[in-house]
Amino acid sequence: MKLWKSRPAAPMMIVRATFDGPSRIIIRGVRVVAVLLAAGEGRRVGGPKALLRMGGVTFVEACLQALDRPGVAARVVVTGHEAERVAAAAPAAAGVSVVRNQNYREGMLSSVLRGLEAAEVLQADALLLHPVDHPQVETDTVDRVLAALQSGARIAVPSHDGRRGHPGGFARTAWDALRAAPPDEGARAVLRAHPDWIVHVPGGPGSVRGVNTPDDLLKLP
């Protein structure tokens, strides 16, 4: 499950941020809501990917931990298939909420739009979109996307080894384009139509390392 194909990235733009310690970026000023897309059926792996495990925790837990960063005001889990089980796996922590996408069979864009609704309610200025099948995303990658949004990017995407990764950051000025995207393409269509909106930031290998098959699962630590 990917928001967009890992196409070659455009030349990278370096954004400025404030660092506290060797790798922790402090982001202030833009209210960002992180939306974890966890509604899929996971047919190729036998069930919801949100409930797969890595290092003793579920994918939904691992992703929520990675998204728990300075500058993330709230985290929203979008469920769909086996919604109750996925919701039960999400930790009961401050700033974490769960919403249900009743239309998840219509494709990932339906979950993106459900996440947008939640972000609106939470008065977000921008949102991070992250698919639950990328549980190895590094916190440094998340921080750099946040820094790009703080610096005024309309869309911020991490890139690793010439490939686009996750999470993607979308400022409020890009939300109408997401809402108008074709259901069969979703966020990919927005990136293709508006390359001038995109700021690419350095991403770690986990940003492009999705789990789509049983073989992918066997490669996890």
Reported for the largest beta sheet, the result is: 8 strands, mixed
What gyration radius follows from the Cα positions, in whole Å? 16 Å
What structural category do the secondary elements indicate? Answer: alpha/beta
Number of helices: 7
| Cα-to-Cα separation, first versus last residue | 20 Å
Please name the CATH architecture. Answer: Alpha-Beta Complex
The CATH topology, please? Spore Coat Polysaccharide Biosynthesis Protein SpsA, Chain A
Order of helices and strands: EEEEEHEHEHEHEEEHHEH
Name of the CATH class: Alpha Beta
Question: What would you give as the CATH superfamily?
Answer: Spore Coat Polysaccharide Biosynthesis Protein SpsA, Chain A
Poorly predicted ranges (pLDDT <50, ≥5 residues)? 10-27
* Mean pLDDT metric: 89
Number of distinct beta strands? 12
Helical content (DSSP H or I, runs of 4+) = 25-40%
What share of the residues does DSSP label as strand, in percent? 15-25%
Broad shape = globular
The number of domains is: 1
Features:
221 residues; alpha/beta; Spore Coat Polysaccharide Biosynthesis Protein SpsA, Chain A; 8-stranded mixed beta sheet; two-stranded antiparallel ribbon; 7 helices
Give an account of the 3D structure.
The protein has 221 residues and is an alpha/beta fold. It has one domain (18-208): Spore Coat Polysaccharide Biosynthesis Protein SpsA, Chain A. It is 26% helix and 23% strand. It contains 7 helices and 12 strands. The protein has helices spanning 59-66, 83-89, 108-121, 139-150, 175-179, 187-193, 214-218; strands at residues 18-19, 25-26, 32-38, 53-54, 57-58, 72-79, 96-100, 126-131, 155-160, 163-164, 168-171, 198-202. The strands form 3 sheets. Strands 3, 6, 7, 8, 9, 10, 11 and 12 form an 8-stranded mixed beta sheet that branches. The protein is globular. 50% of the residues are buried.
